[in-house]
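Quick check before the chapter quiz. The format below is the same one you will see on the exam, so make sure you can read both the input and the output lines.
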Amino acid sequence: MKGIIKKNATTLTQELNWLSKVIDTSIKLFFGEKIEFESIYDVQPPDITHDESFYAEVIKRDQITIPERIVLLLSIAPHVKPEMLDVFLIKNKTLDKYFTEFGGIKDAKYDGFIPTGETAAFILAMNNLESRFDLFNLFCDDHYFNKRNILHIIKPRGYEPYLSGALVLSLEYLSYLTVGVSKFTAVHSDN
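Here is the expected output.
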């Protein structure tokens, strides 16, 4: 069991460091800062070809694309490295409010940032509507994220935009990705 946990921890550390660079790149591009990359897709993900962690096996098994990989990591981050998302808590000084573009939920019970579909849209699509529309496919009932009970987006109240729902990693996959075995039943919960 210790070996599985070590493999998962090593892999997720590398993956979350990559996600951090992707987030940094997207924010710098958004604010028009000079950066070495022209796109988040120029930030190369870690090579998991010979990786034997559960995370790597999921990535390889499902042939996960870069956008799917980023969404998966966004759903993992609040559980294992929540501080990496604090960058999204900056305020728009002109309007004295959080940036709508970043999405996210700031809950009264949790002081951190909970990524939403809007957060994924900010990172992956910026102002490209076609890319934004593609994101809806990741949260459909027939996508393997849902079919395999990996993650889902909480459906917001009727009047709220769909992508404002939180990205929720299932407890089942949280367990697989951390300790290597399922400690929870495969049940969706929006609470």
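If your answer matched, good. Strands lie at 91-92, 97-98, 151-153, 167-169.
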